[in-house]
Amino acid sequence: xxxxxxxxxxxxxxxxxxxxxxxxxxxxxxxxxxxxxxxxxxxxxxxxxxxxxxxxxxxxxxxxxxxxxxxxxxxxxxxxxxxxxxxxxxxxxxxxxxxxxxxxxxxxxxxxxxxxxxxxxxxxxxxxxxxxxxxxxxxxxxxxxxxxxxxxxxxxxxxxxxxxxxxxxxxxxxxxxxxxxxxxxxxxxxxxxxxxxxxxxxxxxxxxxxxxxxxxxxxxxxxxxxxxxxxxxxxxxxxxxxxxxxxxxxxxxxxxxxxxxxxxxxxxxxxxxxxxxxxxxxxxxxxxxxxxxxxxxxxxxxxxxxxxxxxxxxxxxxxxxxxxxxxxxxxxxxxxxxxxxxxxxxxxxxxxxxxxxxxxxxxxxxxxxxxxxxxxxxxxxxxxxxxxxxxxxxxxxxxxxxxxxxxxxxxxxxxxxxxxxxxxxxxxxxxxxxxxxxxxxxxxxxxxxxxxxxxxxxxxxxxxxxxxxxxxxxxxxxxxxxxxxxxxxxxxxxxxxxxxxxxxxxxxxxxxxxxxxxxxxxxxxxxxxxxxxxxxxxxxxxxxxxxxxxxxxxxxxxxxxxxxxxxxxxxxxxxxxxxxxxxxxxxxxxxxxxxxxxxxxxxxxxxxxxxxxxxxxxxxxxxxxxxxxxxxxxxxxxxxxxxxxxxxxxxxxxxxxxxxxxxxxxxxxxxxxxxxxxxxxxxxxxxxxxxxxxxxxxxxxxxxxxxxxxxxxxxxxxxxxxxxxxxxxxxxxxxxxxxxxxxxxxxxxxxxxxxxxxxxxxxxxxxxxxxxxxxxxxxxxxxxxxxxxxxxxxxxxxxxxxxxxxxxxxxxxxxxxxxxxxxxxxxxxxxxxxxxxxxxxxxxxxxxxxxxxxxxxxxxxxxxxxxxxxxxxxxxxxxxxxxxxxxxxxxxxxxxxxxxxxxxxxxxxxxxxxxxxxx
Length: 919
Known about the structure:
Ig-like_fold
């Protein structure tokens, strides 16, 4: 809808559908794609041989834990804990079909626990609880897996035993994160089989009543996980548009932020954008009727005319109940084909349409606008099974959502291998103790490695790097403060994968999967038949279970080596080329950026013969062409190359043959930051590829970016929250913020003096994870876990991700450009600096005189050295830093007389300074 405050024109007539349907056109769609795996299947749920009775029911190659007359579990260890606390052993029978049966004859009444172990470790879901009554008690009882656990999109089963009583008095209810369809069948033998289908992970309360009274053990708590399931999501933006009065330049637009307050008090950020007419539009989703207040501020102060009023009519509020959906694609589907359904939002007001599809495979979603104002949505799954389709309009489920769709057809025959290892929490590090961080980077020279540590008070010091063994390095430093330190490890002046690292001295402030890091070539690329390696750092996440899975065209051999310091290295080997997914989970939750997509190239062939020559050294400039040479050394085949920018966009390189053995590769970087140049020969990376190169002087440094504010701590639903991202002295780059939580959030990002301010309004309680990346690298602390409390303001559904991306500008410290660069807060003691050498006592004319200065024990500061003689300053003076605050100083004098030499560490003279030297 459009409102105008144009004083020179008469009042505009009421808008018609033709007027505002313009904003439904594809060019105004905001389409986002996100992907999140749910908890993976542990081996206990996987059968190599399909149980015949279940084949028709599930129609897929994996089965949930199945109860018929007994447990079917892949394990050879089980025990039962009785109500008295005693342990009893059940009977275990090997069925010789990939399963075992566990049978137990109970001896006591009450709540029992069945503990099932595989390789000495409890399987997921263990212990399984069940209730035992005496035969003469007359109670109705229930048993089966659906009372304790389940998997989203797969039926959960349990059995109710009425022991001769009539089934007519039975009532059942299942409450949880999603609505469920309950089906039951009277078996005519005193038992009733019950089946329900959960569509979202979480805790479900299963109530079984007989004669209006809960049976023993009811309500049962069933933990439903979304194991091994993939999800895809798109959002089609449709918002109300309000034209803002007054003229605003593009520079002004970047510094403005806007929010809209509804009559109920709910305040949300809204977006400012340039309209086709040239005016500035305010885009928001109306949730209520009545008078709304729009506030537009610059640096925290209202602009002229702000706040101003916007009246929202009833027909403009998005109403999910008025959305019409139709099509066979919401009832059943087929693999490898487009399954289509139609959505009509014409009579439903304004609101964004969100579609997420979750199931055994990540189904590709496409959205097309039909000429009649409706949308056609299609999805293409690659694996058979049950899929859950969440369809929301204006953050509320449309009628019938979530839809459960049974997909049939051929699968893609992807193979999966998984290992799981327990990780112990690392002992707490104290001030003054030696800290160590290790990483594996084979095939590099340690000469090009450098490490620095920044303390919580922003003091930066060099750290020592040692080569433990070939390709394995450790960073050592001794902390002087408690708190979170930043460890930057660079190779050829560029952060290695995983850097910058968070290193907490003292007790951990937070723990969990979001604090696990992983990096290495094995998460970027790989080769068939060789070990593809990467590092995993779990130190900051505390203790827990680390699960590593590799899924792709062939089964992987996975090797794991624990370095016993909170880090480990992983290697996997596969036999077929193609696209693989490497999943890393900590305590059943994916770590940031997992699963990683890795393309495994075929056998290297002749690619190892190629070598790169004349590659540009150091940093280069954007918007200028550069080139390097590739020598084939007799290899026969095709060479191709591309350059990938920090923003993720890629561009082809220009390849020209010089002669039969030499090829020139020319590339043209278009933005600042670290670029990767992929050079392949016959489809296989040549040695060293992808080559990383720094473009621009003020290259974004994620280690120098910090985020803080109440919006990163604890927030409330319906209340705006904000935090500041400080980019002072961090260079220019691409800043991206993503909030992953129970619902979409309205979010905006505006420029402030010290960097950027992010404002968002959460709508559902629960944990939100806020990722802050600078040039595609997580800053320290990211992702931040933020706890949200309060009432539910929209419908629950699957996890949703909201993102905002900003191209940053150069920032300096608070106070503006006049203050210049901010000096670090040095902590040092000049009295601990030592100096020695003949050059401190006597000097010879026309010769090089030398002395050394050692400030290794004196903390960190800047060395000032100056020399003044009878006729003015000394002619030649040279200072060379040799590492760890050790310096070699040399000078040359040309006149006789008395000289004064001053050596300062920071603002203080070192012992002996000023020195008197006779020439």
